[in-house]
Design a protein that fits this description.
The structure is a single chain. The protein is α/β, with parallel strands linked by helices and 412 residues long. Among the domains are: 6-115, OB fold (Dihydrolipoamide Acetyltransferase, E2P) (Beta Barrel); 127-261, 3-Layer(aba) Sandwich (Rossmann fold), CATH 3.40.50; 369-409, no CATH class. It has helices at 6-18, 60-63, 104-119, 148-160, 178-190, 215-222, 240-244, 252-259, 263-301, 303-366, 369-374, and strands at residues 26-37, 43-48, 53-58, 75-85, 90-100, 138-143, 165-170, 196-201, 228-232, 247-249, 379-382, 385-386, 398-402, 405-409. It has a 5-stranded mixed beta barrel. A 5-stranded parallel sheet has the order 7-6-8-9-10, sandwiched between helices. Strands 12-11-13-14 form a 4-stranded antiparallel sheet, with no helix packed on it. It is elongated.
């Protein structure tokens, strides 16, 4: 059987508890007893009911957001993580938020709506979109008018990324009319083509922030086409709007920091690129100078060879020109002789052709139909055809054509 030390056993139990989602970030209702505020700012107390009790600690950072001063006997609802304090082996709640128990109905509504929207997929990670630009040009901000959060966001933009155009949409961030106002402004901003939209509010109690748990607001955020980041309350504050957003920041200024680069980092990066470019250009210049010097020296060394080659080329060109001139002269003489011979032959052929044409023209005139008729002959025509034989003549009317006219006749 394996033997365990006390510390290894408690460490094992602590690890199991810390990784059990069923007992992390839970709401617990009870009555405060043994309340003590340490000089460090941490709160230590016991949370009990009629049957059991559990030790609690609320660190200074979380206690700073309390909207009331707790005391022994108060009935409260705490939002906490469960773990084991190894030094004493005790189960302990690490409280992130605490409110009077009167807000229990709100927490119940919150949990019920959260469960419903989760089942509908409104918080599904695969539905969330990513921000396309690392260096945004235009951002819309929905925040309380003239609030500390608005001021902090302005300062953060000026400090981190002043090159970005920021449009502010003042909205109600508390009360029953807040969800409707936020929804209207979100829809308006979603049509403006922003690189991102920030929905922000400064810290407050769970009740103050409850307007961000509106179902219609969650549905509006779910259906938006623009990347949206929320920065609502403090780090330990979570709203349903945070779950529906594409990205959740712990605070309003953290929302700015998540979607903008630090201009000092960008300047440093540009300066590094500039220095690298200068170094690269200088090294390239030096290399080209060395290559030029090397090529120039080779050109100087081969200059005499180029001159000799040029002289040889000139001599060859002169010889070729002389040969070509001689060949052209001979060819011209041959052409002249050939042209004379061809001219004689053409004249002979032309004269023969003229005589032949003259003889043929004489024969053509002699055998011309009109000339034959003038010599006393007659031509027999029937149906516009020349009748050459007696047997071809039909027993119908025909024509006798003379040189000076025609007569119609009928055969007997």
């Amino acid at each position: 059987m394996q033997e365990l030390t006390v510390s290894s056993l408690l460490r094992y139990l602590k690890t199991r508890l810390d990784n059990d989602s069923n007992i992390q970030k839970i709401y617990v209702v009870g009555e405060i007893s043994n309340y003590h505020r340490h000089f460090s700012g941490h709160l230590y107390f016991t949370l009990k009911d009629e049957k059991a009790a559990v030790n609690c600690v609320m660190f200074k950072s979380a206690a700073a957001s309390l909207s009331f001063e707790p005391k022994t006997g108060d009935k409260v609802i705490v939002y906490a993580n469960t773990s084991i304090f190894e030094a004493s082996g005790q189960l302990q709640l690490y409280v992130l938020k605490m409110n009077p128990q009167g807000l229990g109905d709100l927490y119940a509504r919150f949990e019920a709506l959260k469960k419903k929207l989760t089942q509908e997929g409104k918080f599904a990670q695969e539905h969330k979109i990513t921000m396309e630009k690392s260096y945004p040009d235009k951002i819309g901000v929905l925040v309380g008018d003239k609030s500390a959060a608005m001021s902090d966001i302005r300062i953060c933009f000026l400090r981190r990324w002043p090159l970005c155009k920021v449009d502010y949409y003042p909205v109600l961030v508390q009360g029953p009319d807040a969800p409707g106002d936020i929804i209207a402004k979100l829809k308006q901003a979603d049509k403006k083509g922003y690189d991102a939209i920030i929905l922000a509010r400064g810290g407050g109690s769970f009740e103050d922030l409850f307007c961000f748990n509106d179902e219609e607001l969650v549905n509006t955020i779910y259906g938006m086409e623009t990347f949206i980041v929320t920065g609502i309350g403090h780090e330990q504050d979570f709203s349903l709007a945070d779950f529906a957003a594409d990205l959740r920041a712990a605070t309003p200024t953290a929302a700015v920091e998540l979607i903008t680069p630090d201009i000092q980092d960008v300047i440093e990066l540009v300066e590094n690129y500039e220095e690298s470019l200068k170094t690269s250009l200088y090294e390239n210049y030096e290399r080209r100078v060395m290559e030029f010097d090397y090529i120039y020296k080779r050109l100087i060394n081969y200059r005499s060879r180029f001159v000799n080659i040029q002289n040889q080329i000139d001599a060859m060109i002169a010889a070729i020109e002389k040969d070509i001139r001689f060949m052209i002269s001979n060819d011209l003489n041959l052409i002249d002789h050939s042209m004379s011979t061809i001219a004689l032959k053409l004249n002979y052929r032309l004269n023969e052709a003229k005589l032949s044409f003259k003889r043929l023209n004489t024969l053509l005139k002699a055998y011309n139909c009109e000339n034959v008729l003038k010599r006393g002959y007659t031509m027999v025509l029937q149906d516009d055809k020349v009748i050459k034989n007696r047997n071809d003549l039909k027993n119908e009317e025909f024509e006798l054509k003379f040189h000076d006219g025609t007569l119609k006749a009928i055969p007997r």
